[in-house]
Structures are given as structure tokens and as C-alpha cells.
């Protein structure tokens, strides 16, 4: 009897073991099936997510994509943002990336200049566009802009002693301390005759002090993107820390064109200023333009019209000229020549640039 009992127990448990084995197999198959489904779901989600990111980043299927790298993605995001900012800022600008030659133009080694097509945003000529240069009285483009931006042309300005205390030989309209002159008259003297006493009076009137006005000049230059410019005075008399670049002059002159009064005045061949001395007596002076194209001392190429600009001359800056002009088809151009050895050379070089706009 003792031998038969384990046989009965073994025979009775066999179906149970089979049932358990079958249940275990079903559970394994279910786990495997669930695992496979989960993996497939993850693959689908990853693929969809990757495709979405790829398309959002402007990807196409014509070129292979690189594997994801967190540091690379961070760098690329920064570069993308910087590029977007640069494109946004420069979309209406002529962008100079290198020197561009013209067969008819030859500036001396120590000179720089540009010729830019404002309509097509094309660089027709460039030499040392980002070189540091002394602007001399081309500075007065910025002075005039701030006068137009913040000043009232009907204001009467009293000339101070500081306004007339300038270095010997400085170009002046001839005002005396105590003279009564309007802002409009000062602006004309500034742009037509390049009068330094007018520049000083404008700066003091607009800024409260000359130093405050110079701060305004530098702030506005920075707003315009003039990264190579630093002003120390409103007139351009020589100072080692007063400098700019040809490209920055282009940015300033381009901005000045938004003020119609600027081009109206800078096309004038002469200007007569009538004002009162401090004792009430009248004074009158006729001032001749410093631009030789306007006075007829230099001749523009055929079908070229000068619309405005500014001259500048000091011993260290040389002879300089920045012009807005248009060709026979009414298209506008900016041309700049810096550092010419003489007036004659300056206008010869500028004429050689202007001959290319038609």
C-alpha cells in the first residue's frame, strides 16, 4: 500500500503540471507580445517625433541628417538666432564683405572708399570699408541728424563764448558771443559752409552741454549699427579718439536721407545768413558751399545728379567727401572717398566712382 500511494499522487498531479506549464507558456507569450507592442509603439513615437523636429528645422529628404548632439543643437540654435538678427538688420543695407575693384577707380594705398547701389543693395566698389579713418567735417552728418531729430528749427539760439572759442584756422561762419541765430540758420551754416561755430552752438542747444550732445551722437551711432565709430565733438576737428569707418559713414548718410531738410540744404551752392548781434544790430554773411560739384569747381559725369552729402578736411583726415547721387534712371547711390591728398585728387577720384553709376 505504501508503494501505490505515491503512484496515485503522481498520476493525479500530472494534469495540474500540464495546466501550469500551459499557463506559463501563455503568460510568456503574452509578455513577449506586450513587449513587442511596446517596442513598436516607442519606435512609432520616436519616428514621428524625429520627423516633426526634422521638418521644423527645415530638413529635406535629399540630404542625410546628422545624429543628435545636445551641444551641437545648442550651438546651432544660437547661430540661427544670430543669423536671423543679422539678416533682419541688413535686409535693407548694402553689405560689404570684402574689397571690390573697379577698373576705372584707383585710390592710393592709404585711402578708402565705397560706391553702393541703394536700390539693388549692391556693392559696386569697396576699398577698406571698415578701416578706421578720421571723418573731419563729415561728422556734421550726425550733428545735423540730431538737430533735425530733436531740435525746433524756429528756436532762437544765443551764441556762447564756447561756441566761438575754437582752434585757430577753424572754418567758422563768423558769429560773435551773444549773437541771436535760429536753429534753421545754424543748420544751413553747418551743412552748406561746414561752420564749426554753428556745430558747437547746435550741440550746446540740443544737448544742454557739448559733452551731453556727444553722448547722444555716440548713442545714435550705435543704434544705426556703426560699430567702428566714436565721436568726441560735434564738428570733426582733429582728435585721436574721434574716428569712424567708410561703412559707418554710409550708415549715417543713409539715415540722414530720411530727413528731407538734409538733402534740401546739402544741394545748395550758397547760403546767406542774416541775424542780430547782441546789441541789436543786424549782420549778414553769404557762405559758399564746400562741395565743389555744387559750386561748379568740379563737374559731375553726364546724367549724374548730386542730391546731397558732406565734405570734410583736416591735415590728418585728408580730403574727404560722402555723396548721395542718382543716375539717369533716378536710381540712388552713395559714394565715399576718404583721405585724398588734395581737393583736386578728391574730385578726380569721386568722379571716377560716379562714372560707374550709369
UniProtKB/TrEMBL annotation:
PANTHER family: D-ALANYL-D-ALANINE CARBOXYPEPTIDASE (PTHR21581), TRAFFICKING PROTEIN PARTICLE COMPLEX SUBUNIT 12 (PTHR21581:SF6). Pfam families: Peptidase_S11 (PF00768). GO terms for molecular function: hydrolase activity. Residues 110-341 form the Peptidase S11 D-alanyl-D-alanine carboxypeptidase A N-terminal domain. Belongs to the peptidase S11 family. This is Serine hydrolase. Keywords: Cell shape, Cell wall biogenesis/degradation, Hydrolase, Peptidoglycan synthesis, Signal. It comes from the Bacteria. InterPro entries: Beta-lactam/transpept-like, Peptidase_S11, Peptidase_S11_N.
Amino acid at each position: 500500500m505504501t508503494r501505490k500511494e505515491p503512484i496515485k499522487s503522481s498520476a493525479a498531479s500530472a494534469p495540474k503540471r500540464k495546466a501550469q506549464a500551459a499557463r506559463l507558456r501563455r503568460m510568456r507569450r503574452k509578455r513577449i507580445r506586450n513587449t513587442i507592442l511596446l517596442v513598436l509603439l516607442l519606435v512609432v513615437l520616436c519616428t514621428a517625433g524625429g520627423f516633426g523636429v526634422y521638418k521644423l528645422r527645415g530638413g529635406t529628404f535629399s540630404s542625410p541628417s546628422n545624429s543628435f548632439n545636445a551641444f551641437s543643437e545648442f550651438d546651432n540654435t544660437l547661430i540661427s538666432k544670430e543669423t536671423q538678427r543679422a539678416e533682419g538688420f541688413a535686409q535693407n543695407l548694402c553689405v560689404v564683405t570684402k574689397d571690390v575693384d573697379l577698373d576705372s577707380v584707383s585710390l592710393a594705398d592709404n585711402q578708402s572708399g565705397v560706391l553702393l547701389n541703394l536700390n539693388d543693395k549692391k556693392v559696386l566698389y569697396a576699398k577698406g570699408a571698415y578701416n578706421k579713418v578720421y571723418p573731419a567735417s563729415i561728422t556734421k552728418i550726425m550733428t545735423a541728424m540730431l538737430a533735425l531729430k530733436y531740435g525746433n528749427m524756429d528756436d532762437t539760439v544765443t551764441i556762447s563764448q564756447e561756441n566761438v572759442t575754437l582752434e585757430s584756422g577753424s572754418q567758422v561762419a563768423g558769429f560773435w558771443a551773444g549773437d541771436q541765430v535760429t536753429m534753421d540758420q545754424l543748420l544751413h551754416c553747418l551743412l552748406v559752409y561746414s561752420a564749426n561755430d554753428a556745430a558747437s552752438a547746435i550741440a550746446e542747444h540740443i544737448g544742454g552741454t557739448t559733452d551731453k550732445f556727444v553722448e547722444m551722437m555716440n548713442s545714435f551711432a550705435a543704434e544705426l549699427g556703426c560699430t567702428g565709430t566714436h565721436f568726441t565733438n560735434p564738428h570733426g576737428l582733429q582728435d585721436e579718439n574721434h574716428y569712424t569707418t567708410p561703412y559707418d559713414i554710409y550708415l549715417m548718410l543713409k539715415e540722414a536721407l530720411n530727413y528731407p531738410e538734409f538733402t534740401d540744404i546739402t544741394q545748395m551752392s550758397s547760403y546767406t545768413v542774416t541775424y542780430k548781434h547782441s546789441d541789436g544790430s543786424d549782420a549778414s554773411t553769404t557762405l559758399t558751399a564746400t562741395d565743389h560739384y555744387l559750386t561748379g569747381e568740379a563737374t559731375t559725369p553726364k546724367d549724374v545728379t548730386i542730391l546731397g552729402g558732406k565734405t570734410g578736411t583736416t591735415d590728418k583726415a585728408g580730403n574727404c567727401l560722402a555723396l548721395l547721387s542718382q543716375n539717369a534712371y533716378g536710381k540712388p547711390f552713395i559714394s565715399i572717398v576718404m583721405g585724398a591728398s588734395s581737393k583736386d585728387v578728391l574730385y578726380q577720384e569721386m568722379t571716377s566712382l560716379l562714372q560707374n553709376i550709369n
